[in-house]
Records
---
Amino acid sequence: MKKPEQELAEIRSMMERSTRFLSLSGLAGILAGIYALAGASLAWYWIYFPSSEYASGTESISTADLRINLLVVALVVLGLAVGSAYFLSQNKSQRKSQQFRSPASKRFLLALFIPVIAGGLFSFALIHQSAYQMIAPATLIFYGLGLINASHFTLGEIKNLGIGQLILGIIAAFFPEFGLICWALGFGVLHVIYGSLMYFKYDR
Amino acid sequence: MKGTYDKAFENVVRLRVMSILMVNEEYDFNSFKEVLEVTDGNLASHLKNLEKQEYISVNKSFVGRKPMTNYSATENGRKAFQNHLEFLENLIKENR
């Protein structure tokens, strides 16, 4: 018989490996943050520049051109972020010889994307209702909930990242004039911070 | 001493299989194979062994045309595993 300590360690590692998706790339988080900051800067430039006359950010989004531009930027940022996360995580799982497609990764994706897709559809409803000032808070809150939900199935840091997004989302809901700033802090700065933390802790 | 050392978990593959089934409602054959990095025959014989002792139950189905074999832990299996864990924990405590 092996040493009991070894045997317990063995059991623990099997439980972790079979339930958690451990290949999530920290670098992808950093990149997602950078894309978000670039997108938010562009949006800020379009909405608020040159004057801060429309500080609440609602009236100025009423032109259809601007709305389409903002939507395109948002979708490009989303596409780049998801794409980077997919490729870099696949890469990491190969490097660490872990599985990329496993029951654990499926569970992780499902836990994350059910709230996130619901949030996306909800945001389209907000556009439809012309409640533009609520889009930033809604995306932050749904994404935060998705992360907290998914944190059981991946690296634990994700939970704090989710709580951060949630807090920023609620602040943005009460103070819509800070909506874009909160969005940039959440999707941009927090992603970069947590991405770097995870990169230094797990990726290398 | 509390807990019992269970011969069924003496083998490392069976111990790993049971560890996985304690935290996953269901787990399929191919996923086991990938996580455990064992051959088909080896895995099948250990699964059969656990099944015979009624520690795990088997559920065969089809996904499209592919057969899919899912395993889950039975009430007996969970208890046996808990006892085994308790035994190991006590062993550690006593040797301290």
---
Amino acid sequence: MKKNKSLLWLFALILVLSAFLAACGGDDNGSSSDDSEKKEETETETESTAEGEPQTGGTLVYGIDAPPEGLFSSAFYGIATDAEVIALFDEPLIDYNENLEPVPNVASWETEDNKVFTFTFEEGVKWHNGEELTVNDWVFALETIADPDYDGPRYSNVQTIEGAEAFRNGEADTISGIEVVSDYEIKITFDEARVNNLTNLWAYPLPEAAMGDIPVAEMSASEFVITNPIGIGPFKVDKIVQGESVEFSKFEDYWNGDVNLDKIVLRVIDNSSVVGALQNNDVDMISLQPVSGPEVEPLENVEITTYPGLSYYYVGFKLGKFDSESQTITEENPKYQDKQLRQAMMYALNRQEWVDAFFFGYANVVNAPVPSSHWNAADNSELNTYEYDPEKAKTLLDEAGYVDQNGDGFREDPNGDEFVVKFSHYATGNPTFEARAQAITQYWEEVGLKTELEMVEVNLYYDMVEKDDPSIETFFGGWGTGADPDPSGLWKADQLWNYPRYNNPEADKLLDDALDIEIVGTDQDKRTDLYIEWQKIVNEEVPMLYIAELEEIVALNNRVGGVEYDVSGQNNPAEWFVTE
Amino acid sequence: MLKYSIRRLLGMIPMLILISVVVFSLAKLMPGDSLSGEIDPNNTNPEYIAEMREKLGYNDPLPVQYWNWITGFVQGDFGKSTKYKRPAFDVIMEKVPNTLFLGIMSLIITYILAFMMGMYSGRKPYTIGDNAIAGINYVMLAIPSFVAAVFAIYFFAFNLNWFPFGGSVDILVETGSAEYYLSRLHHVLLPALVLGAMSTASYTQFLRNDIIENSRKDFVRTARAKGTPMKKIYNVHILRNSIIPLVTFLGFDFAALIGGAIITETIFTYPGIGMLFLDSVTNRDYPTLMALTMLLSFLTLAGNLIADLLYGIVDPRIRLE
């Protein structure tokens, strides 16, 4: 009898396992249509309420698709995922509006010369530990970042304050450019007048009462960063389960209006589960990868919102070599110096088709290296839009002397030597990267340019690009730009991150002028004109082929309301609400 | 046995030193370093990266870097994770409970399934049941774990709602309460099932073959001649003899328990050592990477030692001196 029982068990198990296998192949259609019907009923009710008046209470589940590193402090975080978590419980002193212009948040400011700024803080702003926020917390943050033991990446945002360098070198006990007037008023003097002093300045305070006793070198590993972070935002951190979830609850003493939600639960959700979790109402809001978009669109309980992103993809040419000692471009690579060749390669690309195929429509073609939502972006009417035109590409190549002389179907260079474009793209585990790189090489081959593709492991890739490795000739890349739209750091001839090694003193002059307060004063239109002038040059010269700017995609469950996005990101989480 | 153990433990030291040299050189030979992934104009600038390279000692010659690392290591200072900016030891220890829990659960599942299937197959070799078990086992072994994991989530978590689709615990329950431990168990079951049920093949087949082999031995015939019931012969006499080869596996399992399961952990967002290890490699987080490799090497060596010692316990005929 006993024997039979164990046999029965075994067969039951086998049955379960084979049912699991059968489920892999078969009838998912049947079951999922059942599901969507059920949801349709509930959906019609919720949509009407979610559109209406904000409701209080409830818990919102906020998803992210990559685990955070866990450095939950504005001064110490390193990756965007951590920044996303911080944005739920902390906020900056100065915010940005939909045109990416600074607007007062906790602090408002006055300046006459763009050198000396007087900031006035709101009174009665509370930290999550009950202490009141004063200007001293900001001074504490600035001095922490300027400390020689500080191990985060923000020093460049403090460097421009007068005396920061001396403080960092240990020559002074305080930063001389910071003058505390009262608990709510502070005067900051920069080392010189610049138009972007304010946008560059580090505008997050740190809780001095809590963190003041911790040596700077140990701060990033302290509890106020890892397990018990403190902010001034509408929600406070209750609990952190490292690498997978964070629980936030409403902060009763929030300074700026009422908070609707009782709780936010942040969960890490692997990309392979995102669609299922959205469909099952297991997550209320999450940023999507473009590839998930087409799968999420048909879901009836979820709505997709897009907003313009601040990043662009490009194909760069290595036009020279950079010497990091002297910070100059020392050599010119002759291969791609011909402007007509570069323009022909641009005309040969069907960028719209490429973007639709690999970004599922969640990206737009760009013609200059400034994302279109920046105030200084040139309108397409002022630029050459390089519409896909293989015939024009061929004509340009013929004119430049790149013609097929030996009849092999591919063009030779003007000297009659074999001409092979070498295209490099980074490789991660993502299988679409090779396909999209291959597509670019095909466009070039169609106009008669023989192209060789090399996929390089991503860490090695950027190392090679940065060090001007001779095997990198044309390369795929992407840049994200921040609130400050000035492209100097990525484009001027003395910059390490000017990867194409584009060297044009006339263009550099325009960029310098646009930042020179003597020339532009505080007149934004004057700056815009200079930037547009600059974009016209790089659009004409194409030291890189501008491909596309990405859109940010967010999936929102229908029960969520009050969430708005613009180019500066999400609105204040205090305004979010859910309907049960 | 004590003398034997001590000798083996001492023998590990040169082995570990050798491993550390090899792994350290391999890690440093990988292109890029922990800062090459940080190229983002919003967040950093070239000056910061250059300064950090200097601070972290990446510009020193390799032997100097190795010496700095190893002297810290033997004194118990595993270094500070370059990614998490915290001591590597803390980062690892934070993930160990999760990984151990998942590892033990999946091992239990593997053992239960393998014992049941192996014993059945061994008793009735070359029957339909035996062939079916072998077939299923090999199919399971052949299915990549990420495919199994994704389908398991789709079927058991999203369609049937039996299990949560990811995470190691529901954050809303109070830590330490009974509910908390139930929640952890609930979260670990699905990944453990995927890991455990997929890897039964080697155990099952080893057990089966050994049972078949032993059932033909003289002592079995003697037992049968004396009238011992077949059930007792199989469950006591043969099984005890057939477990010996499985003990060898246990030695490897020991390190695998801590080593974690990279892909399963990622798909289930179950933060454990496997994910951390992969992460430390892709981010060139040398302190974490080295501490983990040393830990896993040590456990593999220790696991083998334990397996060897267990031989003597399972089978008193084997004597260690």
